[in-house]
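Reader question, answered in our methods column.
A reader sent in the components of a multi-part assembly and asked whether the whole thing could be modeled at once rather than chain by chain. We filled in our standard form and ran it. Here is what they sent:
COMPLEX SIZE: two components
ENTRIES:
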Amino acid sequence: MKAKLLGTLATSLVLAAALAGPALAGPKEGGRANVVIQPEPPGIMTGIVQNAPAQMVGGNIFESLLRFDTELKPHPQLATSWEISPDGLTYTFKLHPGVKWHDGKPFTSADVVFSADKFLRETNPRTRASLSHVESITAPDDLTVVFKLKETFGPFIRMFEAGTLPMVPKHIYEGTDFKTNPANNAPIGTGPFKFGEWVKGSHIRLVKNPDYYEKGLPHLDEIYWHVIPDAAARAVAFETGKIDILPGGSVENFDVARLAKTKNACITDKGWEFFAPQAWLWFNHRQGVTADVRFRKAVSYAIDRKFAHEALWNGMGKVSTGPFADSTAFRDDAAVVKYDYDPAKAKALLKEMGYKGEVIRFPYMPYGETWQRWAEAIKQNLEDVGIKVELIATDVAGWNKKMGDWDFDISTTYLYQYGDPALGVSRAYVSTNISKGSPFNNVGGYVDADVDKLFAEGATGFPDSARQKAYSAVQKKLSEDAVYAWLIDLKFPTITHCNVKNLITTGIGVNDGFKDAWIE
Amino acid sequence: MTGFWSRFRRRRLAMIGLIVVALVVALAVAAPYLYPQSPWKMVQRPFLPPFANAMVPLGTDTLGRNVASGLAHGAQVSLLIGIVSTLVALAVGVPIGAIAGYFGGLVDDLLMRFTEFFQTVPSFALAIVLVAIFQPSLVSVVVAIGVVGWPPVARLVRGEVLAQRRREYVEAAILAGQSHFTIITRQILPNVVSPIVVLASLMVATAILLESSLSFLGLGDPSVMSWGYMIGAARTVVRQAWWLSFFPGVAILITVLAINLVGEGLAEALDPRSSRDHH
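And here is the structure of the entire assembly that came back:
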């Protein structure tokens, strides 16, 4: 009897599926996405906390005026249209009508002015630096905002990304201490998802915003961001089905290839174009053999990037050819001097400079397995051409300190380029950005007046052809000097179950991807 | 001495242990000749399984490095660290124990409270803290293992010296006007050397285990190929490449077991009273 009942049930299920099949051509409504968040962020109010995991969650609550596709082209978000004056100094945005904050209050141009002019200038140093080019921000009417610049600033339009310039509610923050406002713990944005709850150490829950201004979106009912501290446990959670989505970097690279082959697993390396993380080897330009361009060239020739790309990164991303990452604007591959794997050339250069076996201190970046294996491989590459290397093991705090104190000869690192050289590249090369204490500025101490000048011309040049000219010249110069050994333009693969659809559609991937996502 | 050897030889397990230890030592000594290239050298494609290629009989690791070469060079490191850190522990523990046992009284009290201070801290936790503070390197690992290893030595030596202290030959030496130093080093210590040797042999095994555990946690010298490092590096790929953790794991198991067998054999052979109970 029981068996028969089950049989009937199975038949009807099959039938139901068959009937439902054709009807499911469009996105399916409802359901829950289970995602890993690693590590647990200190907060998700992205106007205040800028860590990568904070942006991953907060990017679905907060929005900016624009959204960028995988080619970094701007698309409407809170702004329906925008206009740039012919002289490149005035940007006029028309806002989407009828947008409401999650607490029901209307979103207007006053919120935009408040966010850019008051809030983010105070809370976000990276945004503040870019906003220094802005003379005034005004709101002629409720749905129009005008930014007037002091000088042309090419990357300006790329600031209107959710993580860089998120719109925050004026009626909640005005006149309060931004950093201690209680709304930071239950953020209120305009995005497709609202804050649900946050159980520290367990999960963050976002729920669908039923009043979202883009009709029919989002499709999902809720998102659960699970906190799972161990990489192996995260992989198991994906295999058992507890987790549907592993954002980039949440499992070890070695596990990526294995997980990608498991049943119903789909993998993509898209969704990092805007950040364009590039890995390279710092050289300390201040002293010792690393101050000698021949030594730096020798190292550049000695490193087998293709091997690391295949063995450590599963072929994800691209082997770097120069200081501008693959998806960064104004990259000019024809202008750069390339350093292909060529140990013989490396040996010849070392002989020419008279390298006497000085030991190179290498406090490698302690960001887990892949980076340690990579340091070991680089050490071996260098020893193969006769360079003596001392690997120095540290933890993240110790490494930050060593880099900030310039206590190294070479070291691995990676930095985001934010799509535009003025936003993410120049900071590692210009002499004005040398200061002790930070591992993210011009740590190598490279100083060149021409390079400073070219980067400045590139940032404020107008139109784009002028910027391109400056940036092509700077790429040539930096590669001739072998300023750093550029390794790989990284992509952090996102692994999902294949029934998760339409998740990665923009240049910032999962950070604002749940708006369009649905689960079959 | 011949009596000792004949007693030791009669213990089959101890002899097996000795042969295995001898083989490990031979492997360590032969490593530079068997595998003249650095064990860090990437020689083949990564993740090559064992027995697939005669050049790399035990396969390759995540970077294409020769596992067999790593095992051979790792034997050097494991033995070196085991022996040197044991010597460090003896160098600290024997004098402290001997002084405490010989002088007794307040000196004994002070030294033993000091020793207990170290004993109350879990030894592995202390070793981790020490290595983390001094940056992982061969020296800091050896020192850390030595520092957590000396208290048992001190306590053992103290007990043995205390027992010898009231013997007549010591009284005679004192009456003969010998200095305390001479009495301790020339008269007493030679009589307590047997238990120290036994303890030391077991400490070598413990030290190898400790080093492996530290390396497993990523606290080994990053420039040195050791068995613990190999297992630690293989941890995340254990489901794709079993051989990466299996072979060094077996190497540690066999070596530590063999040293323990030798140690027990020594204990029995050095103690004539126990020899009649065994065959």
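What stands out: The domain at 278-489 of chain A is CATH 3.10.105.10 (Dipeptide-binding Protein; domain 3). The first helix of chain A runs from residue 2 to 23.
Send us your own complexes using the same form.
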